[in-house]
What we know:
Distance between the termini: 25 Å
Mean pLDDT: 84
Strand content: 35-45%
Shape: globular
Number of strands: 3
Helix content: 10-25%
Radius of gyration: 11 Å
Number of helices: 2
Order of helices and strands: HEEEH
Structural class: alpha+beta
Amino acid sequence: ELSNHPRKGFVPNEHRLAAGNFRxxxxxxxxxxxxxxxxxxxxxxxxxxxxxxxxxL
Length: 57
């Protein structure tokens, strides 16, 4: 789904991540943090959904 609809993800509220053009979505219980370069999706982190990503990044 992510490869077919990469703009469907959300822009994080965290200013530092939003400024880096990061987006996120959840797939199968994991939080996927990614960016896009033209039509290429670059996955930066895959985190268990329950974890707080702000503390990790």
